[in-house]
Amino acid sequence: MPYRTRKKHLRLGTLGLGALLASTSALASRTLYLAENELICDGERIVCVDGTLGYEVNDRLLWLRGRVQATAVPGVLQITVKGTNRLGHVRYAPMEIELRGRASEIVDFKMIPDYPDVANWSIDHIVYVPAGDE
């Protein structure tokens, strides 16, 4: 193969590899937002977290980041998310986040749900259990 032809193929191969890497990194960072920059409160509004609840699809990481806006007592914030796999089976993943009961407390919670076959989680229900009520 002449030198110019090899050089041209090398350039095209490099461009193709770059495009492949760009598309792969875009897929690797896919995030599903269940709640984005909003108040996430229990049904009785004992506690509210101003933040984002997300799911990193490829890493299978479910996370909540935010700041407690209102609460008077320490306890456990229980957020249950629900998802369906390709066969139609419904799965639940409970998140239990211990809070000290202080306004402006930072929440940075991460977990990997038990069901790797689900990627479409949504919030099912939120409950706050004050300490001592357990």
How would you characterize the overall build of this protein?
Helix content is 19%, strand content 49%. The protein is α+β, with helices and mostly antiparallel strands and 134 residues long. Strands 1-2-3-6 form a 4-stranded antiparallel sheet, with no helix packed on it. The longest helix is centred in the first third of the chain and has 26 residues, at 3-28. The termini are far apart. The relative contact order is 0.19. The model is unreliable at 17-27 (pLDDT under 50).
Q: What is the average of the pLDDT values? A: 84
Please name the CATH architecture. Sandwich
Q: What order do the strands of the largest sheet run in, or round the barrel if closed?
A: 1-2-3-6
Class from helix and strand fractions: alpha+beta
Strand content: over 45%
Radius of gyration (CA) equals 22 Å
Major sheet size, sense and barrel closure: 4 strands, antiparallel
Question: What's a concise summary of this model?
Answer:
With 134 residues, the protein is of the alpha+beta class. It contains 1 helix and 7 strands; from the N terminus they run H-E-E-E-E-E-E-E.
